[in-house]
Write a structure and sequence with these properties.
By secondary structure, the protein is of the alpha+beta class. The protein has helices at residues 17-24, 28-36, 55-68; strands at 14-15, 44-47, 50-54.
Length: 70
Amino acid sequence: MNAENTTPLPERRILRRPEVESKTGFKRAHIYNLMKEGRFPKPISLGVRAVGWDSVEIDQWITDRLKERI
């Protein structure tokens, strides 16, 4: 394997809602509306009343939105 061709994988972790809001600039209601429309990553159930989002999916969603601007 050539060291020049290796790119570090992004850190994958579970983001809670406040961090997703901070990264996207959206509030809870808008995030859930986008999810209902199929336009935002679905959360992962963490427990009875707790959800989180895959950080890689959120980062990819943001990247895709930025590509739409071009």
